[in-house]
Amino acid sequence: VLMDADSGRILFAKNGQEERPMASTTKIMTCILALELGEPEEKVTVSKEAAVQPQVKLGMREGQTFYLKDLLYSLMLESHNDSAVAIAEHVGGSVKEFAKMMNEKAAEIGCQKTYFITPNGLDASDENGKHTTTAEELAKIMRYCIQISPQKESFLKITQTQSHAFTDV
To answer: How far apart are CA 28 and CA 49, in angstroms?
Structure first.
């Protein structure tokens, strides 16, 4: 999909409405929701579920504590699956509740064929469907992050950073 980000108009698409697994592009929504609903200096405590996520991962251990801002850099610069789960649990109370928030935000943005189940994009399905989006709707989400969100500057700062070093709290 080629989209005019200013207007949101799709200029070109090839299979733009085909539903596909979204993999780590899921983390775009995880990041923007955490920026909008959390505070950078909040402390995030790692759960057992977050600590056992598969590769790619930061390697956090249950009980460790990190600043939310550092986990957002881990999420977006290195695509760490454990950071995504820790962020989701912190912001939403649970992965399931955070996924509900992700779906609500997607609908608010105008996405009708996007369905989130995980905060990290690992393949998943449930009674309501599969974790999927379309290229056109992914472009809408990205446009929201860089053009519309009240946290667009923070999103761009994180995603344009070359590297970020940190330790636990």
So the answer is: 21
